[in-house]
Write a structure and sequence with these properties.
Bound molecules: 2-amino-2-deoxy-6-O-phosphono-alpha-D-glucopyranose
Radius of gyration: 17 Å
Structural class: alpha/beta
Order of helices and strands: EHEHEEHEHEEHEHEHEHE
Strand order of the largest sheet: 5-3-2-6-9-10-1-11
Strand content: 15-25%
Largest sheet: 8 strands, parallel
Helix content: 25-40%
């Protein structure tokens, strides 16, 4: 596992955007897993900039998302689908048919999960961006989720629902009670995981994720078992770490 700690948040975003740029240059048909949440937003802005500068071409890239709320129409202003379109997809030349996102409003959620898992098996994700939730989740795999899990519907923990209040929902009762998410085994199948975290509030979570016991009680700890992981942190998020890391 490579742990990289950056002095400057912009440098952190550029580092990850450059990883994606290099990957696409090497393999223009790469499948990339994108994440929602606040953490990767700077990366997306940098990717849009690269696209506008003509240095990156997304026309043959395939995109997958990690998770979604269950019960919200896909085009709801607070859906993850809308968030990904607004943050990135609407601003680059990725083809609509190459964007694969979970639909939380599918009539049959079980079939939706099977269909998504099948697609992910057909096109292995080359690089999966990840953030860490305040209860240690990755995507919407809440504490207690099996490490063997595939794409599935989850009951969201109250901490995760409360975190959603920053993303368009004004009252807690508007936040869906369920999500649908790539499973932990699904995420672990990606060739490279890029985990990003910044800010003081993530510091104890980052410590537990990287130095703590690998346990289903703390889902993101599973990344310790992946053969190719790059952890990209700012100094605040890294401040409790005892393991060695590289500074940039
Ligand atoms: C959210 C999403 C995750 C995201 C994580 C971190 O609940 N379901 O996919 O990576 O929590 O969010 P943030 O980057 O806003 O801290």
């Amino acid at each position: 596992m490579n742990i990289l700690v950056f002095y400057d948040e912009r440098a952190m975003d550029s580092y990850v955007a450059d990883l994606i740029l290099q990957l696409i240059r090497k393999d223009p048909k790469a499948a990339i897993g994108f994440a929602t949440g606040s953490t990767p937003q700077g990366v997306y802005q940098q990717l849009i900039q690269y696209y506008q500068d003509g240095v990156i071409d997304f026309s043959t890239v395939t995109a997958f998302s990690l998770d979604e709320y269950v019960g919200l129409p896909s085009h709801h202003p607070n859906s993850f689908q809308t968030a990904m379109h607004q943050a990135l997809f609407d601003h680059i030349n990725i083809k609509k048919e190459n964007i694969h996102m979970l639909h939380g409003d599918a009539l049959d959620m079980e079939q939706e999960c099977i269909k998504y898992e099948k697609l992910l098996n057909e096109k292995q994700v080359c690089l999966q961006l990840l953030g860490i939730g305040m209860d240690g989740h990755i995507a919407y795999n809440e504490p207690g989720t099996s490490f063997q899990s595939s794409t599935h519907v989850v009951d969201l923990h109250s901490e995760s629902r409360i975190s959603s209040l920053g993303y368009g929902f004004e009252h807690l009762d508007e936040v869906p009670y369920q999500g649908v998410t790539q499973g932990i085994a699904t995420i672990m199948n990606a060739k490279l995981l890029v985990m990003m975290a910044y800010g003081h509030q993530k510091a104890p979570l980052v410590k537990r994720m990287l130095e703590g016991e690998v346990t289903e009680k703390f889902p993101s700890s599973i990344i310790q078992k992946h053969p190719h992981v790059i952890v990209v942190l700012d100094q605040a998020a890294a401040k409790e770490l005892e393991v060695p890391y590289e500074t940039h």
